[in-house]
Amino acid sequence: MHYTGMLAVGVRVTPSGAELPGATTMQFIFPLAVGLGSYLFLTSAFVALSPSAGERAATVSAQRPVESATP
């Protein structure tokens, strides 16, 4: 079926003086790259700077009031 469909397709390349309307490559790719790069940077910074389980446990134990042994 693929070859039958490809046989039915015909392409003629003709030089055209008019430029197609729309965004240029840089107008499309640059904002996409900046947005995706910012998202990935912020996500990786959030993961890298978040405390580990051991650090969280140490913080919780440090915040508990010290109970005295003598009444």
Descriptive report:
The protein is mainly α. The chain has a domain at 25-68. Helix content is 61%, strand content 0%. It has three helices and no strands. The chain crosses the membrane at residues 28-49. It comes from Streptomyces alboflavus. This is Membrane protein.
Features:
71 residues, mainly alpha, 3 helices, 0% strand, membrane
**Overall strand count:** 0
Q: Which band does the percent of strand residues land in?
A: under 5%
Biggest sheet, in brief? none
**Helix/sheet category:** mainly alpha
Helix content: 55-70%
What string gives the helices and strands in order? HHH
- Low confidence ranges: none
Shape: elongated
Which value, in Å, is the CA radius of gyration? 31 Å
Count up the helices: 3
Whole-number mean pLDDT:
84
Query: Cα distance, first to last residue?
Result: 89 Å
Summarize the helices and strands and which ones pair or pack.
Elements: H1 2-8, H2 25-49, H3 53-63
Write a concise synopsis of the structure shown:
By secondary structure, this protein is an all-alpha fold. 61% of the residues lie in helices and 0% in strands. Keywords: Membrane, Transmembrane, Transmembrane helix.
